[in-house]
UniProtKB/TrEMBL annotation:
Oxidoreductase recorded as keyword: yes
Domain Aldehyde dehydrogenase: 21-247
The entry's keywords: Oxidoreductase
The keyword Oxidoreductase belongs to this UniProt entry's keyword annotation: yes
Catalytic machinery residues: E23
Pfam family, one: Aldedh
GO molecular function: oxidoreductase activity, acting on the aldehyde or oxo group of donors, NAD or NADP as acceptor
Organism of provenance: Streptosporangium subroseum
Name of the protein this chain belongs to: Aldehyde dehydrogenase (NAD+)
Similarity-based family: Belongs to the aldehyde dehydrogenase family.
Length: 249
């Protein structure tokens, strides 16, 4: 019997049968190069980080940006975040609904407070509930800058609408930062075609989107490191539960 498990990375420590396909947590990086279409990269990057209230294992909660364009990108990201409305998920005007539970909201709030205590700069949002939302498990969409690559909020999976913007000086450092977590589920690269492919190949992650590529449900999906093992979707997901036989004559 095989089991397909999905959850945060500690789930992978549970005893499993011989056949086990695990799709676990992530702390993926969105690498924006200095020649990227910033309007596209920021719009998709912020949208991905805040999708489903940040409760997406394959989201991009880390935005790695060239130091030379850091301030410009922060300004664009804050402007993009300001367009997101938090509220009743049944209201068509709402972009971000509540966290899965009040316990998760407290957890997200704790990470935001940890980021502030550790010296990161709060560029947007912050702890507490959004204005006017006194009941319900709502968290404020938050953006941090001046985040050290090894900071808690840059390393651990928050699973909430919290985006960390981290500068890099060159492509080698960008790759090093992107690969510096225990996770390796997804990622993204924005920039000129010849450069993004080279960067994507160096990322230790199971899936990389280039310049906002559409998700392909037939492509293999799964993680490296503590983001899981095996692949799901398409024929790859089926083959994970098959045994291979060789007949010779």
């Amino acid at each position: 019997m095989g089991i397909h498990g999905s959850g945060e990375h500690s789930y992978g420590r549970l005893p499993l049968p011989r056949w086990g396909l695990l799709e676990l947590g992530g702390k993926s990086a969105n690498v924006i190069l200095d020649d990227a279409d910033l309007a596209l990269a920021i719009r998709l990057g912020v949208g991905n980080a805040f999708a489903n209230g940040g409760q997406v294992c394959g989201g991009w909660p880390r935005m790695l940006v060239p130091a030379s364009r850091h301030d410009e990108i922060v300004e664009l990201a804050v402007a993009a975040a300001a367009e997101y409305t938090v509220g009743d998920p049944t209201d068509e005007a709402t972009h971000i609904g509540p966290m899965a539970s009040e316990a998760q909201r407290h957890r997200v709030d704790g990470y935001i407070q940890k980021g502030i205590a550790d010296g990161a700069t709060l560029a947007f949002g912050g702890p507490g509930k959004p204005d006017g939302l006194h009941t319900g498990a709502y968290a404020r969409p938050t953006i941090f800058t001046d985040v050290a690559p090894d900071a808690v909020i840059a390393q651990e999976e928050i699973f909430g609408p919290v985006l960390t913007i981290i500068p890099y000086v060159d492509e080698d450092q960008a790759v090093e930062i992107a690969n510096s977590t225990v996770y390796g589920l997804t990622g993204a690269v924005f920039g000129s075609e010849d450069r993004v492919l080279a960067i994507a190949r160096r990322l230790r992650t199971g899936q990389v989107d280039i310049n906002g590529a559409q998700w392909n449900p037939l492509a293999p999906f799964g993680g490296y490191k503590q983001s899981g093992n095996g692949r799901e979707f398409g024929r790859y997901g089926i083959e994970e539960f098959l045994e291979t036989k060789s007949i010779q004559r």
